[in-house]
Structures are given as structure tokens and as C-alpha cells.
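Sample 3 of the quickstart, ligand guanosine-5'-monophosphate:
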Amino acid sequence: MGENLLIVVSAPSGAGKTTICKKLLQTTPNLIFSVSMTTRKPRDNEINGQDYFFISTEEFKKRIKKNDFIEWAKVYDDYYGTPKKNLEDSLAGMDVLLDIDVQGAMNIKKEYSDNAVLIFIAPPFLEDLKTRLSNRMTDTSEEIEKRFLLAKEELKNILNYDYCVINDDVGVTVGKLKSIIIAEKNRVKRIGKELLKKLEVEDA
Ligand code: 5GP
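Result:
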């Protein structure tokens, strides 16, 4: 009952978002991941079509022209975008999880104001980000520094989100995200009218 949700999760690089999203997907029924397209090179552990669709800059620009993206953004030096068709097909039957940056989140909120739920995952301490970025060791030190500086900028956007979850512990954070999803699915604005109709009660 009720419309499907677009769960938008943003976090600065190194806040543990990828792990959190994977755990959330494994343990939440009816939730599917929106696989973005990017011009970034794949990291060692990433699978094309699962983590991202890795495409060339030329192909990405062609797709912008064809209006293939619901939203797209240049993050660091690469392009990232949410394919429109995949998202709409998924949303017809399931809730959809999007792992996108703050620019994308704002655009999704504009486009899908009724269905979008924006969640920001924040690190408990800023220094944690640098440690996690360095531990990942998939990026160069220059890249790490660039991501760290942008992360500080991104934190300013917390105030534009619906929820903010501080990630002290992955398990607890995933639990909080699930609670948010459950609460959002039970909001009167989503299910009230349909429920009254089902119960054959006229609304006031
Ligand atoms: P990464 O290169 O670490 O995978 O992602 C870099 C940033 O791009 C992250 O903040 C991630 O959420 C964001 N991102 C990934 N896919 C998309 C997308 O389709 N649209 C937008 N706007 N941002 C994205």
C-alpha cells in the first residue's frame, strides 16, 4: 500500500556509505539499488553493472543530450548520473535506494517531492574521514586530500536533508535507516487515503 519510495543516501567520501548501503540492501525487502553511470575508472573490487555502469565521457555526454538522466553531476573530475529509465522501471514495483551526492539529492527532491526521502550519513569526527579514505588505499594521496576538502564542504548541506544519521557503528546505522524507511512508509500522507478506501470509510 502507498507509493514506492526513493531513498536517497548521501555522505562525504569515507563516511562508510558503500558498506552501509550494501548491508541495507541485503536485509531490506522490496528495496533495489539504482545503479548510476559514471566516467570514473572502476576500483579493483567494483563490478560493472552492479556498482556502476562505467562508460566513457563521450558516451556520457551523448546520454546527457538524449535526456537519459534524471539527474547528473560532475563530482571531483568525473561525471555521475542516474539513468531515468532504470529508475522509473524499478520505482514502479519497488523502493529504490540511490547513493548520490548532494547536488543529485537536491535534484531528486525537486523532481520527486512526494516519494523522495533524503538521508545524510555523517561521520562522528572529521578526522575519521581522512583515516577511512587512507585505509581504503584505492585512491592516490592527492585524490584523498581532494575528497577530504570536498567532504567538509558537503557537510554544510546537512540542513537540506530530511534525516541525518551519525555513523558510529555500521550495524546501528543500518538499523536507523531501516527505521526511517518503516516510518516513512507508514506516514498518513502516503497510505491514509488508500486505507480509508479499502476500509470503505469516507474521508472527511
Ligand atoms: P565514488 O567515486 O566514491 O563512487 O562517488 C563519488 C560521489 O559521487 C559520491 O558522493 C556518490 O554518492 C556520488 N554519485 C554516485 N552516483 C551518482 C549519481 O548518479 N549522481 C550524482 N549526482 N552523484 C553520484
